Automatic annotation (TrEMBL):
Protein name, per record: sn-glycerol-3-phosphate transport system permease protein UgpA
Subunit structure: The complex is composed of two ATP-binding proteins (UgpC), two transmembrane proteins (UgpA and UgpE) and a solute-binding protein (UgpB).
Taxonomic source organism: Amaricoccus solimangrovi
Gene Ontology CC annotations of this record: plasma membrane
Domain spans labelled ABC transmembrane type-1: 70-282
Entry membrane topology: Multi-pass membrane protein
Protein role: Part of the ABC transporter complex UgpBAEC involved in sn-glycerol-3-phosphate (G3P) import. Probably responsible for the translocation of the substrate across the membrane.
Gene Ontology BP annotations: transmembrane transport
Family designation: Belongs to the binding-protein-dependent transport system permease family.
Transmembrane segments: 12-31, 69-92, 104-127, 155-180, 201-226, 265-286
Subcellular location: Cell inner membrane; Cell membrane
Pfam families on file: BPD_transp_1
Amino acid sequence: MNRATFPHRLLPYLLVAPQLAISLVFFYWPAAQALRQSTQREDPFGLATQFVGLANFRAVLSDPAWLNALRVTVVFSAWTAFLSMAIALLLATQAEKLIRGKDVYRTLLIWPYAVATAIAGMLWLFLFNPSFGTLAWPLRQIGIRWDPLLNGTQAMGLVIAAAAWKQISYNFLFFVAGLQAIPKSLLEAAAIDGAGGARRFWTITFPLLAPTTFFLLVVNTVYALFDTFGIIHAVTGGGPGRATETLVYKVYNDGFVNLQLGSSAAQSVILMAIVIALTAIQFRYIERRVHYG
C-alpha cells in the first residue's frame, strides 16, 4: 500500500491546523464554558457567581417543563426524521424511473434546500395562517377548525411538516446518489426471475441503500435536535402552551430570555450528552445491520 509523503515534517500539521483551530474555538472552548457554567449560579449581569455543583442538573431533571420539552423533542425528532427520509426516498425512486427530463426534476427537488431555515418556517406559517393562509382556507371549507396558534396538536403538525419539507431535498440528493450506485444488472436479473417492483425494492434496492440510510439517520437526528430551532422560533415560538418547545428551544428561552444562565448551561450539557448517546447507540446497534458492499 502506498503511503503519502510530505516534503516537510511540519506540512501535515499546518494543513490540519485551520480545522483544529475552528474546532477549538467554536466547539471545545464553548463546550468547556458550558460545563463550567453548569456548575455555577450566576447573576444575569455577571456580577456574582456561586459554585453549586450538580444542583442545576438536579433542578433541571426534576423540572416538569424540561420533562415536557424532552417529550416534545422525542415526538418532533422522530416524525421529522421519518417523514423527511421516507418522502425523499419515494421521490428519489420515482425520479430514477423517468426517461425524459430526469435532470430537471432532480434540480427542482433540490432547490428547497437552499431556503434558510427561518424562511422555511415563515413560508409554512404564511401558507397555513388561520386568517389568510392559502392552504388554511381548504381546511376551513371541509370543517376543520384550523388554528395552530391556539391548538397545540396542530402547531406540532405544522412545525413537523415545515422541518421535514426543509430536509427532504438534502435526503433526496443522497438517496439519488445511492440509487445510481446500485448495479442495474441486479435489478434486471430479478425482473427476469419474475420479481415485481415492490419485491425488487425491498430485497435488492433498500438493502443496498443501507449505508446511505444509516448516514442520513444520524444526520437527520442531529438536524431535528438542533437545526430546527429557526423553524420553531419563526412559526410557534415554542407555543401554544409549550406544545412545541423542544430542548434546544428551552435552552434559548431559559438562557437568553429568562437569563437563567446556570440552568440553561446545564440543559445544554444534558442535550449534548443525549446527542452523543444517541449517535453512539446508532453506531453500536443499528450499524450492525448495515452491509457495505
